[in-house]
Amino acid sequence: MEQRGLSKWLPWISAPVLLVLLVVVWSLVVSVFGISEFVLPPPSAVAASLGELLVDPETWGHVQVTVSEVLTGFVIALVLGVLGGWVLGRVAWLEVAMRPALVAFQVVPKVALIPIFVIWFGFGLTSKVIMAAILAFFPILLNVLLGVRSVDPGHRDVMRGLGASRWSTFRNLELPSTLPYVFAGMEVAIVFSVIGAIVGEYLGGNEGLGFLVVSSLNALDAPALFAVIVLLAAVGSVLFFAVNLAKRLVIPWHESVSEKEFA
Question: What is the residue range of 14's domain?
Answer without folding.
Answer: 1-35
